[in-house]
Amino acid sequence: MSLEDKLSEVGRNLRSSIIRELLKFAASPEAISFGGGVPDPNTFPRHELAEIAKEVIEQDYSYTLQYNTTEGDDLLAQEMSKLLTRIYGIEGIQRDQMLFTTGSQQALDLMARIFLDKDSICFMEFPAYLGAVSAFRMSFPRFETVPVEDDGMDVDYLERRLKEIDAKGEICKVKFIYTVPNFHNPASVTMSLEKRKRLIEICNRYDILILEDDPYGMLRFSGEPKPSLYKLAGPDRVVLLNTFSKVLTPGLRIGVILGRSDIVRRATMAKQAMDLCCPSLTQRIAARYLNRYDIVEQIKPGIELYRSKKDTMIKALNQDFSVIEGAKWIDPEGGLFVWITLPQGFDTIGMFDVAKSKNVYYIPGEAFSIEKTPSTSMRLSFCLPPEEKIVEGIRRLRDVIVEYGKQKGLM
Ligand SMILES: *Cc1c(COP(=O)(O)O)cnc(C)c1O
């Protein structure tokens, strides 16, 4: 059988993740990897979760080991609604405005299914979160990208593009704008309040939905929290995605969509066709965890750990990268990443072979572009390596850049 002949257009267009390919060698013991964007397992409350898991399996087995509604666990909904009110100041959340999803990744998939057709236009940030790109790509939309600046997406550029699209009579094809406003993955920046308001004003004018993806908002090390787009504009304009993956554990696979009830209803119907429901077991574990522990207090040591690692990385960059004239990086107020941009002429994919030879790993910026654009940037994650490895890794990375720069006559 020729598989190519049998495959659907989606099936034929599937590509394995470039990140996975690049990080194949990063697992050796001598390697220092800033590649993985996953939380530090030491932050997972494993004893608490183990105790709760035993309880809810033994006591609530007729619920936790059974099928569940597509909408999800009502106890989790109560707890989640309290949490969302607390962290975002959003009041009056109704049950039918919330849908639990198998991580935010499923929420992204659901949004693509209910909003995007082949000729739809979908606005992304550049660089973009790859998980969203791969979920949306399944619907073959036309991607438009808006550059991310130090204080969030370039809303002037967005406005200009929308004006051009409107002039061509295509504005009705624009379905949504996807944004990660807090501690962007991978750009590590946070959108300013002024830009949040401008974004909403522009989207109100052109009647475009905003998809606000906020997995990192609770992981703030410094500075004042900014109001969410949802809080500022409400469910008529914004669908908010949140997840336990970065603040509790990704292993539970629990995310939530908060939005207008008719949108949530559509997403629920689409989810039913995909997987009927999220696992009852992990939803109930999360519900009981939130009920028993104050998650905002519980994550404080984890935030301290990440803050300390981030400080170590920034300090090492300030010291070691002073020899690389024109290199820039963001000192993030939260999240898991530092985004570094090298001077013109560098190509972080081209540099990867040198990095491999020195056993230090990062994600080249090209991986976060939709059209595979060569990039002078790279994403470094500080969450996994211990602090002494961060220091050593940055030193190796400096040597990589200097060696590559000399090879290419850039330094
Ligand atoms: C990690 C991350 C997610 C979370 O995905 P889950 O499916 O909930 O694990 C969503 N969006 C962004 C931008 C992320 O970085």
Automatic annotation (TrEMBL):
<protein>
    <submittedName>
        <fullName>Transcriptional regulator with HTH domain and aminotransferase domain</fullName>
    </submittedName>
</protein>
<keyword id="KW-0663">Pyridoxal phosphate</keyword>
<dbReference type="GO" id="GO:0008483">
    <property type="term" value="F:transaminase activity"/>
</dbReference>
<comment type="similarity">
    <text>Belongs to the class-I pyridoxal-phosphate-dependent aminotransferase family.</text>
</comment>
<dbReference type="GO" id="GO:1901605">
    <property type="term" value="P:alpha-amino acid metabolic process"/>
</dbReference>
<dbReference type="InterPro" id="IPR015422">
    <property type="entry name" value="PyrdxlP-dep_Trfase_small"/>
</dbReference>
<keyword id="KW-0808">Transferase</keyword>
<comment type="subunit">
    <text>Homodimer.</text>
</comment>
<dbReference type="GO" id="GO:0030170">
    <property type="term" value="F:pyridoxal phosphate binding"/>
</dbReference>
<dbReference type="InterPro" id="IPR015421">
    <property type="entry name" value="PyrdxlP-dep_Trfase_major"/>
</dbReference>
<dbReference type="InterPro" id="IPR004839">
    <property type="entry name" value="Aminotransferase_I/II_large"/>
</dbReference>
<dbReference type="InterPro" id="IPR050859">
    <property type="entry name" value="Class-I_PLP-dep_aminotransf"/>
</dbReference>
<dbReference type="Pfam" id="PF00155">
    <property type="entry name" value="Aminotran_1_2"/>
</dbReference>
<feature type="domain" description="Aminotransferase class I/classII large">
    <location>
        <begin position="48"/>
        <end position="397"/>
    </location>
</feature>
<dbReference type="InterPro" id="IPR015424">
    <property type="entry name" value="PyrdxlP-dep_Trfase"/>
</dbReference>
<keyword id="KW-0032">Aminotransferase</keyword>
